[in-house]
Amino acid sequence: MPEKPRPARQRQAKLDAKAKIKEQARLDKPVPGAGVHLNTTTIPEKNVLQTHGVAGKENLAAVAAAAMAAAKGVVKPADAADANEGPDAYPPPAKINVGNSPVYIPEKKLGKGGFGQVWLGRRVTLRKKDGVVLEGAQAPEVALKLEHKTSKGCTNGPPYEWHVYSQLGDSYGIPKVHYKGQQDDFYIMVMDLLGPSLWDVWNQQFQHLSETYAACVAVESLAILQALHNKGYVHGDVKPENFLLGSAGSGKEKKLFLVDLGLATKWKERGTHVRYDQRPDDFRGTVRYASVHAHLGRTTSRRDDLESLAYTLLFLLKGRLPWQGFQGANKGFQVCRKKMGTGSDLLCQRVNSAFQEFTDAVINLKFEEDPPYQKFMALFEPLLNTPERPLQVEVPSKVGQKRGRSQLEGPVEAETPVASKRIRTGQAAQQWITVHTRAQPMKQRYHYNVSTSRLLVHVQKGWEDGLFVTCVASCDDLWAIVMDAGTEYSQQIYKVHPNSFLPKEWIMEKWEEGFYITAVAGSDNNNSLVVMSKGARFNQQSYKVSDSFPYEWIKKKWKEGFFVTSLATSSQQWAVVMSRTSGFVEQAVELDFQYPSEGIHKRWDAGYRITACAATHDQAAFIMSRLRKPPDDETQETLRTTSFPTTHIKEKWDNSLYIMGLAYGKTVS
After folding, report:
1. How buried is residue 536: exposed, middle or buried, by Cβ count under 10 Å (0-12/13-18/19+)?
2. Is 476 in the same domain as 601?
3. How confident is the model at residue 7 (pLDDT cuts 50, 70, 90)?
4. pLDDT value, residue 668
5. What is the model's pLDDT at position 125?
6. 343: exposed, middle or buried (C-beta count within 10 Å: 0-12, 13-18, 19+)?
7. Surface-to-core class of residue 238, CB atoms within 10 Å of its CB (0-12 exposed, 13-18 middle, 19+ buried)
8. Which of 363, 383, 403 is the last residue of a domain?
9. At residue 482, what are phi and psi to the nearest 5 degrees?
């Protein structure tokens, strides 16, 4: 990607430091987690959304072989990642004895996953008690979960999952860990042996479960998740493979359990909700069932487990979700876009209305919102009025009744009505996005629907009046420009380059003359408008053109001391301009397949302001920055309109709100 060279007197002094920064950036590259991990990976000239782990096809023979699944969903579905074959290939010890446990012989491998392998363990010595069923720590058969010390979850010692189980203690619907410890090269947990997963049951029932069965799953899953959430954790990978029934002959064959806490995270620390963030390269979970927020790299909260539960229920009912079948390097992008574009009415066609009401409610939960678990459960109660329920469920006797502490293992949160303000659903639209910032009264001018041939007339007149171009955008292959007197520019030039996004040679030539890119836009017919200025407080600049949003490259440049100063799109391509400047302290990205209203407001509350924005036909991106010298009045507003907002702009001017950002593309009305 082109980068303006430093002046000769600076270059040599910075070479060693730059090499160290690059090496650190390489070392800091995130390691993929379990499931399918999406990562924006830089390759020459283009960035492509990569999927780490190869998705395989459902293997019914493997499903049947794993009918005695234990404390890990062990059947690999179509969207799950391959486990680490290296550590899993090591055979377990011939006999296992950890943490003062009895001695167990690992008899049969039940399965493997992203966080280890699970074996059936048989107790070597057992005192028989006539007429007494031995269970728990005394059971003759247990599940042995082993993780090799070289596996990705054990590089710094015991698996993270150990810590989660220790923090949870006894939690409703979570299998019990009886012993844990290290033996030879393995970290081992001795756990309750469980039975088939909902994935297995779904296959045994010809890949379709009844509405009654799904309603039982819904109610019991909500109870399990509420108990887990009350402990301060979210599961992070809710799916059919991670819900297991009790083992045959245990008396718990109809009892549901939630397993695999390898991706569990805290949603609450010391009584306070964790802070919101978005890192578009940080995906955790399984592509098929992950929430949209997980796809977009947002901090996990309780709503994500519930959205994944909705997708799980609909999969069990219908046998397929609309976003299955995507392949290729940008699979995660395609799946997330499809999820965002599929409303609950289409997703829940031909199923009981309770499932649609639940789905519609959970996909609209806010980041910090307390889910109304009891009211969600009550939606499914009418479907449970059958002579015999296929699953053991705990149903409140009336709507809104709280469960006891013995069932939920934690404080009961206050509940809100099911209906809430919609934050995600709406009619997809292509709109103008204008960002208005409070400033001292100044002269500002705009032009829109300007052809390339007429552009010079407007720009030249502005220059003559002491105005400089500050924002540019394109709609229907015509240009919109904003000029104002609130800059420190001393000179300005621009170029419209046909069939090129962006004009590399011209930009590099002007860099040598002391100009820097201060505004840029692209049209759908691949023309580009680049504005370069003198007087901008930049001392080095770099840009990248990419077929997907180049977040990995942005992170790399952040580490090198650059900040995003301009953003543009041309059809589905992105152009990001980054500069060394003293004006910013920190930046963040809000990227969405709709307008990210909640994220923008969270950033505003944290002291960030929008400093650049752009949109394609699929996505909108906002660069949020913390300024080194914030103004006394940090008021900022955004406006979305179908046509260029001429009337609104004048109203904003009357309130000293001036345009500082302009884009046209994907939003939601």
Report:
1. buried
2. yes
3. low
4. 82
5. 80
6. middle
7. buried
8. 383
9. -125, 130
Identify whether 268 is part of a domain: yes
Nearest CA to 293 among 191, 365, 383? 365
State whether the Cα torsion 242-248-249-254 is positive or negative.
positive
Mean pLDDT of 157-166: 95
Closest CA to 440 of 622, 635, 651: 635
Tell whether the model's pLDDT for residue 11 goes beyond 90. no
225-249 confidence digits (pLDDT tens): 999 999 999 999 999 999 999 999 8
Note whether residue 291 is domain-resident: yes
Is the predicted pLDDT of residue 545 greater than 80, yes or no?
yes
Do 496 and 640 fall into the same domain? yes
Say if CB 296 and CB 278 are below 8 A apart: yes
Collapse the DSSP code of 477 into the 3-class scheme (helix H, G, I; strand E, B; otherwise coil) and give the result.
coil
| CATH number of the domain enclosing 329 | 1.10.510.10
- Asked if 237 is an active-site residue, the reply is yes
Active-site pick, 237, 360, 484, 592: 237
Calpha distance 447→436 (Å, rounded): 16
Q: Does the pLDDT value for residue 269 go beyond 70?
A: yes
Label residue 554 exposed, middle or buried (CB < 10 Å: 0-12, 13-18, 19+): buried
Alpha carbons 560 and 135: distance in angstroms, whole number:
58
DSSP code at position 476:
T
Please check whether residues 177 and 157 belong to one and the same domain. yes
Query: Quick one: pLDDT at residue 528?
Result: 97
List C-alpha distances in Å: 100 to 43, 92, 127, 182, 291: 52, 18, 17, 12, 41
- Please, what is the Cα angle at 475 between 654 and 655, to 5 degrees? 10
Could you tell me if 306 and 174 lie in one domain?
no
257 lies in which domain range? 196-383
Statement to judge: residues 243 and 357 lie in one domain = yes
Three-class secondary structure of residue 13 per DSSP: helix
Q: What share of the chain is helix, strand, coil (3-state, %, to 5)?
A: 25, 30, 45
Whether residues 206 and 226 fall in one domain: yes
> Of all helices (H) and strands (E), which one includes residue 577?
strand 573-580
Mean pLDDT of 258-279: 96
Mean pLDDT lowest among 52-61, 385-394, 473-482? 52-61
Q: Which residues contact 146 (CB under 8 A, 6 or more apart)?
A: 92, 106, 116, 117, 118, 119, 186, 187, 188
Percentage with pLDDT > 90 across the chain:
75
| Residue 231 φ/ψ, nearest 5 degrees | -85, -5
The CATH number assigned to the domain holding 186 equals 3.30.200.20
Quick one: 116 and 240 in the same domain? no
- Cis peptide bond prior to 502, omega within 30° of 0: yes
> Is residue 367 a contact partner of residue 303, using CB atoms and an 8 Å limit?
yes
Q: Do 499 and 525 belong to one domain?
A: yes
Q: Read off the pLDDT of each residue in 57-77 and give the average, rounded to a whole number.
A: 37
Its pTM stands at: 0.83
Helix (H) or strand (E) holding 530: strand 528-534
